[in-house]
Amino acid sequence: MGMITAAGPDTGRTWQAVVAGRPTTAVIPELTGMPVQLACRADFDGDAALGRRTAWRLDRCTQMALAAGREAVADAGLAPEEWEPARVGTVLGSALGGIGTWQREYDRLRELGPERISPLTIPMSLPNLVAGQLATDLRACGPSLVTSTACASGTTALGMARDLLRNGSCDVVITGGAESSLVDSVVAAFARAGALSRNTEEPDRASRPFDVDRDGFVIAEAAAILVLEHPEHARARGARPYAYVSGYGASADAGHETRPDPEGAGAQRAVEAAMADADLGAADIDHVNAHGTSTPLNDLVEGRMVRRVIGPHPLVTAAKGVTGHSLGAAGAVEAALTALTLKNQVVPPTAGLRETDPEVDLDVVGGTSRPATLDAALSNSFGFGGQNAALVLTRA
């Protein structure tokens, strides 16, 4: 796996910050004048990571995907020059793709006129190029797809990648999610919708999933890329996996465009489908990495659903207390963290949590990380449009 988040420029440092419960929310100068100026921005320099010759042609979202993808492939012990290109796919999730390029070029159009628009605007902005550029960079000639299911995009991508392995289309799929949308138009729109935290007095607690006084999410940017591999292919080369993707489920609320089903029925269908796919029951789930956005309604609906479907026993955490909410990348970030939780047998704390909402009757880990014996974990993602996706990961 490879990660670039506000918590760290790679997988190791991201994991260390999450296990330590170190929040990354800060006031971002680029958002001066916006109704909310809090965000979780990654310390990432595309020129330094990729070289100027590569980086200048790519939106920041795609730059991060490439850098994380290179880390993931190296971590897997794979060499693109040695694999069979047609048997390697790329499936990435992104809600907004190259929105930063759109914003910049639109501003340039209004200020300077149409002759000053970059000829690279379309390829830098198209969501499918997030995966397409990664495929080109890694010489992966199998199916190349981008899923866009709002904040469930990264999880949807992993589920589709798993299916490409299961149906025999690929031996290896480079998958995950990437998002970089810390731009005025996006932040202002989320603020107007009442979705963002305004806790500027305590930035470290602006993102506080499941807390009794949570007031919204903190927007973030991130990329998380995971190498999924068919078990036979992995065994043949002696690979050591972090975890197994044992189950995947997806559903639609088919209700409101932004508000989740108040009973969590759609989310429940996705979770139950993932558990059935993994052939596991509620008692088998030891850990839940919750979607946990820190918004009042979403956390309440998810908490009640988890209690109803799985029960009070699993240890629950929400990484967005540290990382913020990276929209289409969030599910991939959280799947990677869930795999590391299983590997390291420790549940990270939910940063910012002081008092769990009494209506969320779950064992939400707060304060410090908690060692535990963990064999199976659930990773949830729910997005605008009633898009629901869930993964069951099991210990390798």
Q: Per the principal axes of the C-alpha atoms, what is the gross shape?
A: globular
For the secondary structure, the number of strands is 15
**Main β-sheet, in a few words?**
6 strands, mixed
Oligomer state equals: single chain
Radius of gyration: 20 Å
- Show unreliable segments: none
Widest beta sheet: strand line-up: 8-15-14-9-10-12
Report the structural category. Answer: alpha/beta
Mean pLDDT reading: 97
* CA-CA gap between termini: 15 Å
Index terms:
396 residues, 5-stranded mixed beta sheet, alpha/beta, globular, 14 helices, 35% helix
Tell me about this structure.
The chain has 14 helices and 15 strands. The chain is α/β, with parallel strands linked by helices and 396 residues long. Helix 11 crosses helix 12.
How are the SSEs placed, and which strands pair?
Elements: E1 2-4, H1 11-20, E2 26-27, E3 38-39, H2 46-50, H3 52-55, H4 60-75, E4 88-93, H5 99-112, H6 121-125, H7 128-138, E5 144-147, H8 153-166, E6 172-179, H9 184-192, E7 222-229, H10 231-236, E8 243-252, H11 265-277, E9 287-289, H12 296-309, E10 315-317, H13 320-323, H14 330-344, E11 346-347, E12 363-364, E13 370-371, E14 376-383, E15 387-395
Parallel strand pairs: 4-5, 4-6, 9-10, 9-14, 10-12
Antiparallel strand pairs: 1-7, 2-3, 6-7, 8-15, 11-13, 14-15
